[in-house]
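ARCHIVE ENTRY
Sequence with per-residue C-alpha cells
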Amino acid sequence: MKRATALITIAIACTLSACGSDPVRQYFSAPAIGSVATRGVGDELVNSMNGILVPDIEIQGDSVIGDHRIPKGHYVYDDENSKGIWFTGQGEYFYMRKADGQICLDESKVCARVDYTLGKQLSAQSLDSFQQTLLYNGKIGDRITLGYREFANGTARPAFSNNVDYDLSESKVVGYKGVKLEIINATNTEVTYKLLSGFSN
C-alpha cells in the first residue's frame, strides 16, 4: 500500500509575526485526542510523526500586482528569509513581505496589498524519519483487527509491523503502544471510534 505522507493539515490561523517565525520541528498526532472519526478497512486510525509546521496562504480573490494577475486559491510555502516568505502554486511564485504584509512579485519587486489568509500546515518534505500508524484491518464476528506500522524515511519497517486482534465482547476500549480507542461501531468495511490517547512518544 502506497504511503501517504501529507495527511495532516493543521488549520491554524496565525498572526503575521507567528507565521514569519522560523519553522520549528514538533510532534504531531491525528486525529485530535477526544475526537470521533470513521475510517474504512486499510485506513489509518491514528498517525503520529515529527515534522515542521510551515506557513501557507489563501489568496481570497484574483489579485493584480503591477501588470501581473495572481489567481485566487491556495499557495504553499517554498522558502523564507528575514525579509519575506515565498509561496508557490498554480504556476505562480511570489512572496509576502514581512515588514508590511504586502504581496510582492519576486522579479520586479512590485508589491500590493491583497486580501489573504495565512495558515500553517505540516510540511511533507520535513517529516522526521520515524512515523507510527495504526490501521483498521476489519472485523470478523466480535473481533476486530488493527495493524501497527512503523516507517523510516517513508519506508515501512517490517520488523516493527504487527497485527493485533481485539474481542469487542470483552471491552469496547482497545489499545496498543499508548493508543487507546473507544470503538463506537465496527463492521467489515469501516469503524467509528473515539481517540482517547495517542502513541506514547
